[in-house]
Specification:
coiled coil, mainly alpha
């Protein structure tokens, strides 16, 4: 009986070798060919989703770059006309000189830069 089992195992090994199957590779012989196809299909879908996400990200980055370019051109095209940085840098217009002038006059004037809202 053992001789017959050994003989059948040898024949099975020879049959696998002639069909191009590795005797140690049991994945394909156990019906996992369908599992391999399902895995391949899943990976293809995942790859397609990744490519779509990459394309969307590139388009979004391009739109943001255009927006930055437009904002830079608007910012560089217009001069800032309010705020303390817009004052000329003459010694007469320094912050300390202005503070000294208001304290000497002491007319309780308040200098405000930016929008003023009534509360």
């Amino acid at each position: 009986m053992m001789d017959r089992i050994v003989k059948l195992e040898d024949e099975l090994r020879v049959l696998r070798l002639t069909n191009g199957l590795d005797p140690n590779d049991n994945k394909l012989t156990n019906g996992n060919v369908e599992d391999g196809d399902a895995e391949r299909l899943r990976l293809r879908k995942e790859l397609a989703e990744m490519r779509k996400a990459k394309t969307n990200a590139e388009e979004h980055a391009l739109k943001l770059e255009r927006l930055v370019t437009q904002l830079r051109s608007k910012f560089n095209g217009h001069q800032i006309s309010n705020g303390p940085d817009s004052l000329p840098s003459d010694p007469e217009h320094e912050t300390n000189a202005r503070a000294r002038r208001t304290s000497v006059n002491s007319n309780n004037a308040t200098v405000v830069f930016g929008p003023v809202t009534d509360l």
